[in-house]
What we know:
Radius of gyration: 23 Å
Strand order of the largest sheet: 1-14-13-12-9-15
Shape: globular
Order of helices and strands: HEEEEEEEEEEEEEEEHEEEEHEHEHEEH
Number of helices: 6
Structural class: alpha+beta
Largest sheet: 6 strands, antiparallel
Distance between the termini: 51 Å
Number of strands: 23
Strand content: 25-35%
Helix content: 10-25%
Amino acid sequence: MTDLDTARAGVYSPRASRETLTSHVLRWPFARLHGAGPTYTLLEKILMNYKSYLGKQFTVIDNEARVRRDDDIKKAAVFELDDELPAGSNLGDFKVIPKRTIVTVSDVKVDDSKNTFVFAQPVDAPPGTPSGWTKATNLEGGLLNETVGLAPSQWALAPQGKNRTVTDRNALVRDGAPDFKSKNKSIPAGTFVLILEESSGTNPPGRFVRVCGGEIDGESFVQGEEIGWTSVSNLSDGCADFYTSAGWADQRGPNACWDHGQFVGQKLLVNIIGTGGELEQITLETMGPYFRLVGEAAKENLQIGIESAFRTFAKQKQLFDGFRAKKPGFNLAAAPGRSNHQHGQAFDLNTRGFDGNPVYDWLKRNGARLGFVRTVNKEHWHWEYLPVEAVQLAKRGKFKRANVAV
Length: 406
């Protein structure tokens, strides 16, 4: 039993440990990812907050931080008859949150162009200071690297380390060590389980896990009867009904990953604010490594941000069709299913150029050490999380593949 399990006498909940966490990942072991076999690594603690902006304060930096209408975010809101007017304002004036106002953010939404808007609520502001939806870029930092939820978003209990859903229809129950022999019975697909123990003498460690059933109570997993041992590959992160739905099985759906024209499975996505206040998506399994990269760069006063990351099949098709039709604004794009941005490990980062640009120079020195590799010729911004390959490159003092000449 873990410290979290024993502390709650049968109730598994992340809430007790949250005050000790930062807003992002503190420790997330390198996962076995694309090109390196199946993923067996499990989280050791509760290490993530999928809406990292909650509980933080931000400063308005724009002189014209206009509030947007609730019913049409593209239009600016104005003071109406029932509104409290701040000093110097009149009915019909645009609602503006004054520069240097401290605000909290209670919600985030995105328009059709990926522009991010936040619901800003002033803190200790003068009477009449408006609250409401405004552009993320009106706040200092533009909410860069804040996480704003998971995709899909419908959870009985979001991933918190040990809670899982059985997703293999042949999830065999097994004896324990050393042989983990089948008991000739299985766990029904869709069952919510909690991991109680991981195998230590298997290759790799954690290949099998001991689980129990239970019930979801708010943000907690209430432990039920022990089920036994099963392969960790039979389980998916978090507790959700969508895992057994036809939508999750759709190979061209919003979570479908492709590699060189082959469907390679579904992956959970984290919504994250990129450069320019645009919403991007990264896979849950790369969230920890990415924030390690961000944190290490910050130690040298460098800010790393995402300019593009995961792309859905539909988005890649739109880019490819636009390129093929020679539409204005559409650049060279791979066919859907063949883009590096569809397998879930590619990041276009804010390098701003080749040698001489601080972020790029830092990535050259440190990217491979942290699992990131340059993989595309003439694209200084394109890095991929490939930890096994990166280890070998780092040993040789390299940071890019041999085919990357420029």
